[in-house]
Amino acid sequence: MGSPVRRPEQTLQIQVAAFLRHALKPPVLWSAFPAGGGGVIRGAILKSMGLQAGWPDVLVMAPGPIIVGIELKAGKGKQTPQQLDIQNGFIECKATYYVARSVDEVEGFLRGVGIPLHARIAA
C-alpha cells in the first residue's frame, strides 16, 4: 500500500474551521469557501453558479463592520495571480485580507483586528 495523499492546506483549513467554530460567536459570522478539488465538471458547475477564482478560503464579518478574508497557505505555498487580484480588491474596498499559515496566525490576526474570540489556541 502506498502512503496516504498529503493535503496540508486541507488539513490546515479543517484545523482553522474547528477553532473558528469554538472561538466566534454571534453576531460574528464566518464561512469557508472550499472551491478547490472535485474535478473539471464540479469546477464548471461552480463557475456557472457564480464562483469566481481567487476568493479567500475563509470570510469573517463582525460588527463595525469588520470584513476579513483569510487565505490559508501551508508551508511555502504562494498565492495565485487570481488570489492576488482578490487581495487587491479587498484592500480597495477597505476590507481586510490576510494570508495565514497556522491556526495561531489566524487567532492572532483576528484578535489584532478587534474580533472578539471566545477560545484560545492552547499554549
Overview of the structural elements:
Strand 2 and strand 3 (66-72) form a beta hairpin. The protein is globular. The chain has helices spanning 8-23, 39-48, 81-92, 103-112; strands spanning 29-32, 58-62, 66-72, 96-100. The chain has a four-stranded mixed sheet with strand order 1-2-3-4, sandwiched between helices. It has one domain (13-112): 3-Layer(aba) Sandwich (Trna Endonuclease, Chain: A, domain 1), CATH 3.40.1350.10. With 123 residues, the chain is α+β, with helices and mostly antiparallel strands. The protein is built from four helices and four strands, in the order H-E-H-E-E-H-E-H. The protein is 39% helix and 17% strand.
Secondary-structure map:
Elements: H1 8-23, E1 29-32, H2 39-48, E2 58-62, E3 66-72, H3 81-92, E4 96-100, H4 103-112
Parallel strand pairs: 3-4
Antiparallel strand pairs: 1-2, 2-3
Search tags:
alpha+beta, Trna Endonuclease, Chain: A, domain 1, 4 helices, 39% helix
Count of β-strands:
4
Biggest sheet details: 4 strands, mixed
Q: What is the CATH level 1 assignment?
A: Alpha Beta
What's the total helix number? 4
| Class from helix and strand fractions | alpha+beta
